[in-house]
Specification:
The complex is a heterodimer of chains A (226) and B (736). Chain A has five helices and eleven strands. Chain A is an alpha/beta fold and 226 residues long. Chain A has one domain (3-225): Rossmann fold (3-Layer(aba) Sandwich), CATH 3.40.50.880. In chain A, strand 3, helix 2 (68-77) and strand 4 (82-85) form a beta-alpha-beta unit. In chain A, helix 1 (14-25) crosses helix 5. The longest helix of chain A is centred in the N-terminal third of the chain and has 12 residues, at 14-25. Chain A is globular and about 45 Å long. With 736 residues, chain B is α+β, with helices and mostly antiparallel strands. Chain B contains 25 helices and 28 strands. In chain B, helix 7 (103-119) runs parallel beside helix 10. The chains are: A alpha/beta (226), B alpha+beta (736). The interface between A and B is medium-sized, with 32 and 32 residues.
C-alpha cells in the first residue's frame, strides 16, 4: 500500500495523516511538495487538512490551482483513489473532483470537538472496515465545513449512495442538534461516482488510539490498508 | 516623519515617551544631539516594554537556576532539559494594550510573537496556552472584547497548526479599562540544536527573512509603556496586523535551515522590530553591525529610516549566517515563498551604523545603550494587610445545593467550552489531555512521555495580599502539574501590573515577586523566562495585580496520567491536605455573600510540597482513578467538576469538626487534592499519609446521578452540567 501526501503551503495535518498511514498501513507515505508536478506511482493520494494559502480568497481555492493538482486530477481520472480531509475536502470541491461547496459554519465560529457520525456506506476502500449504519466518534476542527450543493446534486448524492458519513446526535439521529456546522442533509463526507474519491470534514487521523480520546478512526485506515 | 530642527528634539523625545533625564543621557552617549532615527531608537530601547527599567531590580530576586535549566531569562525563551536528549523551550508574553485597542489583531499578533520567540531558538512549537482577564461581564465593552480576543487567538493558532491546549479566563470590573491577554508557547528541540541570539564572526552576513516591512506598529512598544487615557481609539494604527499563513511558512523555513549548520545567530523581530533585534544580536556578541536600509524588503514606498527601524511588522526574523552559506539559505526561503535579503554585515566597530540612500542615517554605540540603560528603584509602599475572615461570621447558605449552583455557573467557574472549542486543540495528534482538566498533557512526539502544561494566577488573592497571591500563583501551577501525575520543572511568568510610578503599584509588584520567589525556591520550580507589562491602568484605576504563571512539567510514564473525571461508582473519595475553612477573598464570599474583603488563604509552602509529593507518589505507585486539585470555590466545586467530567455522582460525608460546614465545603484552603481510589486501597493510602504527616481523610463515595452532601442536600449531575455550561454561550449570545 503506497501512498502520497500532498503538502501545500499552509497544510498542517500532513504529519498527522502521515503518522496514521505509517502506523496502520505499515508504509510511510511519500511527502510531495505542491510545487512538484510529479507524483510517484502510488495507490492513494491524500490532500491533508490545514490552511493551504492561509484560506485566502476561499478555503481551498488557491490550492486547487496549484501545479500538483493537474496531476492529481489526471490520476483521479485514471481511478487512483484520492482522499481529502478537512482542507483537503475543500480543495476537492474547489477543483471539481467532488460536487458542491463548503461554506462558513452556521454558528460562524471555528469548532474543534468530537462529533458523532453515521457511516452511510461501507462500499468503498475507505469505509469497508465499518458497517453500514455504524455510529462512530471522530473530531472535527474547521470554520468552513457547511456542505452546500444544489437540490439536484443532493438528490443524486443521496440516490446514488454517495454520502459516506453523516453528522448525527448521540442517539444516532441526523438532527439539527447533531449537525455541528449546518451542512445540507447533515453531510460530513461524500464520494465521487466511482467511490474512488472521498472528501470528509472530520479528522480520522486524530482518532487512532484511545490515548488521544478515541480510536474510531483506525478502521478508516485499516480499510485503506486492506 | 519630517526632519525637525535640533531645538525640537527634546520636545520630540517627550512625545516618544522619554523623560528629560533619559534625553540628556542619550545626548551624552551620542556626544551630540541624536537625529530623529537615533532618538526613536533610544526611546524604544529604553521603553518600559523593552528595557524593564522599573522591574529589573525586583526580577533579580527570582530563582532562575536548577540542574535541569539549560538557559534562563535573557534569551528569547527559557530552555529546560527534559531528558532523552530533548529540551523544552517556552515563554509567556503579554499583548494587553494592543488587544484592548483592536482585540482580534492584538490577540492574534500576541500568539504570533510568542511563537516566534520559541521557534527562533530552534524548537518546533507543540502547544499554545493563554491567560485572559476581562472586565465585568455587564460592562458594555466586555462581550466584544471576549469575542475578538478569542477569535484572534484561534485565527492565528489554528492556522499555524499548533494546538491551543489550555488556559484560563476570568472576569472582574478592575479589568474594565485594561484587559489582559497573555499567550504562552511551548516547543521541543534537541538539546544539541538550540539557537541563540549572540552574533559572532566579523564579516558574517546579516540576513533578513520573512515578511516585508511596512508602516504598521510603529512605536507599539512605547504605546505599551503608557497609561490609557481618553485617546485610546486614536492608537489603533500602532497595533500590528498578523498573517499566520506567513508565520507557518516561516516556522517551516527556519526549522529547515536550522537542520543545517549555516546559522550563527538568530533573533525574531518583535517589539521595536529591526531596532531591538539588531541591538540584541550585536550587543550579545560584543560586535558592531552595519545595515543598508535600502536592502530591507519594504511593503510601501518612501519609508524613512525611522519608520523602517521602528516598524513592528510581523513575521520577520534577523539572522547571522556563516559566510558563503547565503545561497543555500536563500533557496530554502524562496521555496517557502518568503522574502530573503542580505541587509548588512557584522563589524568590529561596536557601533550600529544604518545607511539609507547613500547617507549615514544613524551611527550609535551598541554597548552603552544597554549598559547605561536607565534602571529605576521606584518608590513603593507595601499593600495594607487585610484581616482574616472568621468563617463563623460569614452566613451559611440556606441551601448548600443552591450555593453550589450559583458558584458553578458564575463567570469565573463556568465552563469555558465556548472559548476552547474555537481553538484547534488536537492538531499534531499528540494532545492527550484536552482543555478542562487540571493541566494539559501533550505527548513528546513518537515517545511514551508527555509534557504537562498549565497557566495559573488568582488576581483577587494578589490584590488582597500581593505576597501571598504571588506565592499562591506559583503553588497552584505546581499543584495542577502534580495532579496529572507529572513532575513540575520550571515556569515562565507574565507580570501584569498598573502604573509603576505609583508607589502602591510598585508595592504590589514587589510583594508578588517576593511571594513568587519564596514559592519557586521551596518547590524547586525556577523561573526561566518571562515578560513584564506595566501601565495597565485607565485613568486612576489599575488592574488587579496579575503575575500569570505558566508551568511545565514532565510525565515520564503516560500510563499513570490522571484526569479529573470520576471513573466508576462505588469508589472512595479522599481529601488530601488540611481544611481550615478559609473564606477570605474566596469566590463563595464574592458570589454568594456578595463581599470581596478579607485576606486570601495562607500558602504553607512546606505543606504544599509535602502534600504534592505525596499525591505524585501515590499516582505513580498506587494508581488512583482520578485526581483533582482544590482551588477556586473550594472542595465542593472540585468534587462537582469531577462528577460533571465523569457523568457520575458522589455522596459526600463531611466529618463533624470546628469548621462550619459551608466553610469546609467552599473554603479555598491551599495544598489540597481530591483522589478517587478503590475502596480496597483506602486504608493503605491513609496509613502512608499518616506516616508522612500528610492530612488525609475519606470524605465520600462515588456513584449515583447526583452530588449529595451529608445526605441533606442534593443536586443532579445533569443539572450541574447545564448550570456550568450555560452561562458563557448565553452571555456571548447577549442572553445573560
Amino acid at each position: 500500500m503506497k501512498s502520497a501526501v500532498i503538502v501545500f503551503p499552509g497544510s498542517n495535518c500532513d504529519r498527522d495523516v502521515a503518522v496514521a498511514l505509517t502506523r496502520i498501513t505499515g508504509t510511510a507515505p511519500a511527502m510531495v511538495w505542491h510545487g512538484d508536478q510529479a507524483i510517484p506511482n502510488v495507490d492513494l493520494i491524500v490532500l491533508p487538512g490545514g490552511f493551504s494559502y492561509g484560506d485566502y480568497l476561499r478555503t481551498g481555492a488557491i490550492a486547487a490551482h496549484s501545479p500538483v493538482m493537474g496531476e492529481v486530477k489526471t490520476r483521479a481520472a485514471k481511478g487512483v483513489p484520492v482522499l481529502g480531509i478537512c482542507n483537503g475536502f475543500q480543495i476537492l470541491t474547489e477543483s471539481g473532483l467532488l460536487p458542491g461547496a463548503l461554506v462558513r459554519n452556521v454558528g460562524l465560529h471555528f469548532i474543534c470537538r468530537d462529533v458523532h457520525l453515521k457511516v452511510e456506506s461501507a462500499d468503498s476502500m475507505f469505509t469497508r472496515r465499518y458497517k453500514k449504519g455504524q455510529q462512530i466518534k471522530i473530531p472535527i476542527a474547521h470554520a468552513d465545513g457547511n456542505y452546500r450543493a444544489d437540490a439536484e446534486t443532493l438528490r443524486r448524492l443521496e440516490g446514488e449512495g454517495r454520502v459516506a458519513f453523516r453528522y448525527v446526535n448521540a442517539k444516532g439521529e441526523a438532527t439539527e442538534q447533531g449537525n455541528p456546522n449546518g451542512s445540507a442533509n447533515n453531510i460530513a463526507g461524500i464520494f465521487n461516482e466511482k467511490r474512488t474519491v472521498l472528501g470528509l470534514m472530520p479528522h480520522p487521523e486524530r482518532a487512532i488510539e484511545q490515548l488521544l480520546g478515541g480510536s474510531d478512526g483506525r478502521a478508516f485506515f485499516e480499510g485503506i490498508a486492506a | 516623519m519630517t526632519v525637525r530642527p535640533e531645538a525640537n528634539m527634546e520636545t520630540l523625545a517627550r512625545e516618544f515617551g522619554m523623560s528629560a533625564e533619559e534625553y540628556a543621557l542619550s545626548v551624552e552617549i551620542m556626544g551630540r544631539t541624536p537625529n530623529v532615527t537615533e532618538l526613536g531608537i533610544f526611546s524604544v530601547m529604553w521603553s518600559e516594554h523593552c528595557s524593564y527599567k522599573s522591574s529589573k531590580k525586583w526580577l533579580r530576586k527570582l530563582p532562575t537556576t536548577a540542574p535541569w535549566v539549560v538557559c534562563g531569562p535573557g534569551e528569547n525563551a527559557g530552555v529546560i532539559d527534559i531528558g532523552d536528549g530533548m529540551v523544552a523551550i517556552f515563554k509567556m508574553e503579554s499583548h494587553n494594550h494592543p488587544s484592548f485597542i483592536e482585540p482580534y489583531q492584538g490577540a492574534a499578533t500576541g500568539v504570533g510573537g510568542i511563537l516566534r520567540d520559541v521557534f527562533t531558538m530552534g524548537a518546533r512549537p507543540i502547544a499554545n496556552l493563554n491567560a485572559l482577564r476581562f472586565g465585568d461581564p455587564k460592562h458594555p465593552k466586555t462581550r466584544q472584547l471576549v469575542s475578538g480576543v478569542v477569535a484572534g487567538i484561534g485565527g492565528y493558532g489554528n492556522c499555524v497548526g499548533v494546538p491551543t491546549v489550555g488556559g484560563e479566563c476570568t472576569f472582574h470590573p478592575r479589568f474594565n479599562g485594561n484587559i489582559l491577554v497573555n499567550a504562552m508557547t511551548v516547543g521541543l528541540a534537541r538539546k544539541d540544536k538550540v539557537f541563540y541570539a549572540r552574533a559572532a564572526g566579523i564579516g558574517n552576513p546579516v540576513v533578513y527573512v520573512g515578511s516585508k516591512t511596512g508602516r504598521d506598529g510603529i512605536h507599539g512598544a512605547t504605546m505599551a509603556s503608557a497609561v490609557f487615557g481618553a485617546e485610546v481609539e486614536a492608537k489603533r494604527p500602532t497595533v500590528q496586523v498578523g498573517d499566520p499563513f506567513t508565520e507557518k511558512l516561516l516556522i517551516e523555513a527556519c526549522l529547515e535551515l536550522m537542520a543545517t549548520d549555516a546559522i550563527v545567530a538568530i533573533q525574531d523581530m518583535g517589539a521595536a522590530g529591526l531596532t531591538s533585534s539588531s541591538f540584541e544580536m550585536a550587543g550579545k556578541g560584543g560586535l558592531g553591525i552595519e545595515i543598508d536600509l535600502d536592502k530591507v524588503p519594504q511593503r510601501e514606498t518612501g519609508m524613512s529610516p525611522y519608520e523602517i527601524m521602528l516598524s513592528e511588522s510581523q513575521e520577520r526574523m534577523l539572522m547571522v549566517l556563516k559566510q558563503g552559506r547565503e545561497g543555500e539559505a536563500e533557496r530554502i526561503f524562496k521555496k517557502w515563498e518568503l522574502d530573503f535579503a542580505v541587509v548588512g554585515t557584522l563589524t568590529d566597530t561596536g557601533r550600529l551604523v544604518l545607511k539609507h540612500k547613500g547617507q549615514v542615517a544613524a551611527d550609535m554605540p551598541v554597548a552603552p545603550l544597554s549598559e547605561q540603560m536607565p534602571e529605576y528603584a521606584r518608590p513603593w509602599v507595601p499593600s495594607p494587610p487585610r484581616p482574616m475572615v472568621d468563617a463563623s461570621t460569614v452566613p451559611a447558605p440556606d441551601d448548600i445545593a443552591a450555593a453550589l449552583r450559583t458558584l458553578i455557573s458564575c463567570p469565573d467557574i463556568a465552563s469555558k467550552r465556548w472559548i476552547y472549542e474555537q481553538y484547534d486543540h488536537m492538531v499534531m495528534a499528540d494532545t492527550l489531555q484536552r482543555p478542562g482538566g487540571d493541566a494539559a498533557v501533550v505527548r513528546i512526539h513518537g515517545s511514551d512521555r508527555g509534557l504537562a502544561l498549565v497557566t495559573d494566577c488568582t488576581p483577587r488573592y494578589c490584590d488582597a495580599d500581593p505576597k501571598m497571591g504571588g506565592a499562591q500563583a506559583v503553588a497552584e501551577t505546581w499543584r495542577n502539574i502534580t495532579a496529572v501525575g507529572a513532575k513540575p520543572l520550571a515556569v515562565t511568568d507574565c507580570m501584569n501590573f498598573g502604573n509603576p510610578e505609583r508607589p502602591e503599584i510598585m508595592g504590589q509588584f514587589a510583594g508578588c515577586i517576593e511571594g513568587m520567589a519564596e514559592a519557586c525556591k521551596a518547590l524547586d520550580f525556577p523561573v526561566v523566562s518571562g515578560n513584564v507589562s506595566l501601565y495597565n491602568d485607565t485613568g486612576a484605576v489599575g488592574v488587579q495585580p496579575t503575575p500569570a504563571i505558566g508551568g511545565v512539567g514532565i510525565l515520564d510514564n503516560l500510563r499513570v496520567m490522571q484526569t479529573i473525571a470520576i471513573k466508576a461508582a462505588g469508589n472512595a473519595l479522599l481529601l488530601i491536605g488540611e481544611t481550615k475553612g478559609h473564606l477570605g477573598a474566596s469566590l463563595y464570599l464574592r458570589e454568594v455573600a456578595q463581599r470581596e474583603d478579607g485576606a486570601p488563604p495562607p500558602v504553607d509552602l512546606t505543606a504544599e510540597r509535602r502534600n504534592g509529593d505525596f499525591v505524585r507518589d501515590t499516582i505513580r505507585t498506587g494508581r488512583p482513578l482520578a485526581t483533582h486539585d482544590c482551588s477556586d470555590g473550594g472542595l465542593l466545586i472540585a468534587v462537582a467538576e469531577m462528577a460533571m467530567a465523569g457523568g457520575i455522582g458522589a455522596a459526600l460525608t463531611i466529618p463533624a469538626s470546628t469548621v462550619p460546614l459551608h466553610a469546609f465545603l467552599f473554603g479555598e484552603d491551599q495544598a489540597r487534592y481530591v483522589l478517587e481510589v478503590p475502596e480496597a486501597d483506602v486504608a493503605g493510602i491513609l496509613a502512608r499519609a499518616k506516616a508522612e504527616d500528610v492530612p488525609a481523610a475519606k470524605i465520600g463515595t462515588t456513584g449515583g446521578a447526583a452530588l449529595t452532601v451529608n445526605g441533606a442536600w442534593a443536586i443532579s449531575v445533569g443539572d450541574l452540567k447545564v448550570a456550568n455550561e450555560a452561562w458563557l454561550p448565553a452571555y456571548m449570545a447577549g442572553k445573560a
